[in-house]
Amino acid sequence: MGLEKGKVRWGVLGTATIAENHTLPGMKEACNCQLYAIAGRDPEKTKRFQEKFGFEKTYGSYAELLEDENVDAVYIPLPNQLHKEWTIKAARKKKHILCEKPLAPTVDEVKEVVEICRQEGVILMEAFAYLHSKATREVIQAVRGGAVGKPLFVETVFMVKPWAKENIRMRKETMGGGTYDQGCYNISLMLNLLDEMPDEITAQAHFMENGVDDFSSIYFHFPSGARGYAISGMCCGQRADRYFIHGTEGTLEAPLPYNAKGSLEYYIHKNGKTEKREVETPSNYQLEAEQMGRCILEGEEPLVSNELSIKTAAVLTEALKKIGYY
After folding, report:
1. Binning pLDDT at 50, 70 and 90, where does residue 255 land?
2. Secondary structure of the chain in HEC code, one letter for each residue
């Protein structure tokens, strides 16, 4: 499989579950994406990924992959605590970067990563795939367009089942916890819907014995007078993700699972009536890869901007402080 013109040649650092089950299948469908190389610590698993997704090359270390001059961009699905380190190393090698969230543990470290990428002249995008969804984009546009009047209260929920004890999401040293893993979705969505930063944050959480939060509740007040509530965690019997935007003229109800695809529905309740709206959307991961590709090949601006990543990190950092995570 030779190098293909008009496509971004991707290198993947790691063989994480999210890569195998979600991102790589989406990248295979992307029209401007070539899965060129993958690096992993387990040769057998790395070989399996190569055969499954059609990578041309495999490497036994992440550093080796970054030395390959044919790699235009890297996708980083490594554990949270490794995101900052390998994003910086990739930037130093002039690779464009799509990195899973969060980019770094705190807002100051996110700013550092962003600045290094700017200095090196590479594109950096945080992998909030759900923000690429046509359904999510339509909801944001509807709210900003006044579909429910002036937003007064945004209610977001993202809960999942408890993970196995050895899972990285359940360990403090790997930046685990419901607020880091699910709450960042609620926060980034709220910032997109309201297009402003909160001026007040209060929060509380429940912590497991190992110091990781399995439930948090965060309240926000915004300069416009709007308020928000984010509930997240990993202590439910089944996944639950939904959000409501209550405005002066009605309510938008979006039972949209983050990162879902297919025919998705949301509802506008107004004047005693309910309007159902349907949106057909392909894989968010496909849309994410294609958008990143256009940024690299055509100069398009990243949908998930560095400014949004910094704002999300600022709110997330403050929320984690409020619940006593640090």
Report:
1. confident
2. CCCCCCCEEEEEECCCHHHHHHHHHHHHHCCCEEEEEEECCCHHHHHHHHHHHCCCEEECCHHHHHCCCCCCEEEECCCHHHHHHHHHHHHHCCCEEEECCCCCCCHHHHHHHHHHHHHHCCCEEECCHHHHCHHHHHHHHHHHCCECECEEEEEEEEECCCCCCCCHHHCHHHCCCHHHHHHHHHHHHHHHHHCCCCCEEEEEEEECCCCCEEEEEEEEECCCCCEEEEEEECCCCCCEEEEEEEECCCEEEECCCCCCCEEEEEEEEECCEEEEEEEEECCHHHHHHHHHHHHHHHCCCCCCCHHHHHHHHHHHHHHHHHHCCC
pTM of the full predicted structure? 0.95
- Give 39-78 pLDDT, tens digit per residue: 999 999 999 999 999 999 999 999 999 999 999 999 999 9
Given a cut of 50, is residue 270 above it in pLDDT? Answer: yes
- Helix 83-92 and helix 107-120: axis angle, to 10°? 10
